[in-house]
Amino acid sequence: MGSNKVWRGARAIGLGVLLAAGLSGCAGGARDDTFSLSSVPEVVGPTAKNRQILVPEPTALKALDSEQVVIRLSGSEIQYLSKSRWSDRLPRLVQSKLIEAFENTGKLGGVGRPGEGLAIDYQVVADIRSFEIDAGGNDRASIEISVKILNDRNGAVKSQRVFSTSAPVVGSGNAAFIAALDKAFSQATGEIVSWALNSI
User: Fold this and answer.
1) Which CATH homologous superfamily contains domain 3-23+48-199?
2) Can you give the pLDDT at residue 30?
């Protein structure tokens, strides 16, 4: 797929300009196609019924902290996928799917968001470093998320790891790009949840 043809109509600006502009003028319109992250993988891991965890909203740079789908053309130049948007801000979407994945294991005493009143043992603190389509060569979805397991009782970091996954774009059109991101995120989610269960 030729990148110039595929991304025609997207807004292309340098990363420095993007951050300075605060994403102004890039909000999706009412006619944009809206996508969510659908994949919640089955996870193998030990049971920790005596543990309750908190999943705060992940942190992310402003370029990722929006409803826009990021396309990276080079190391410093990004675009947003035209006529497409996430169903919520990306960090909130990732938080929701991580909570769902932890809950679906049935292996924990409780999983919650801040403010839900759980007696928390550990926090799963994530930072989204990359969540994009890499259009620099072969089009691929690329995701990188740094995760810490934080002891909620004493503030000590019990474990820390960076998760990097990718998936090829199969087909053409916006739905194909989103499907690749969904597949890469599903893999990352499975690895994060399995690792966390083994860490607590």
Assistant:
1) ABC-type transport auxiliary lipoprotein component (3.40.50.10610)
2) 55
